[in-house]
TerB family tellurite resistance protein
Amino acid sequence: MFRNLMSRLFSQEAPATPLRGQDAEVALAALLVRIARADDRYTAQEERRIDSILARRRGLDANEAAERRAAAEMIEAEAPDTVRFTRLIKDRIALEDRSDVLAALWEVVYADGKRSADEESLVRLVAGLLGINDRDSGLIRQRVMSELGVGEA
């Protein structure tokens, strides 16, 4: 699965075709992992949050979500720079799903209860790359912070 997805995701020859099902979720999970690793502290809370997001998005059980995250960790390690990686994902996910993806990214940023300028900065970059303007990104961020009970401090 890992090598096949890597070749489909990063192939330079094929035109950008939408990723479907499991492939799409693993690619998006890899972006979640990249955000979690942005501050050089990839914590168990962040892993659990990613598992929770994956389970919620596709109705996976805990083991399936953890397996998908493990595949995503390998893909993230092999993925090109964040700009190219995010553009590849943007070209392959539906516009209507991008706000949900951004909300999931903000969830991961605040999963460990600590604010990280590195993680927040990377999410802001990714939001723009996904075609989400600053205002909408800020509203999504505020909603997620409120849902998670995270303060602005």
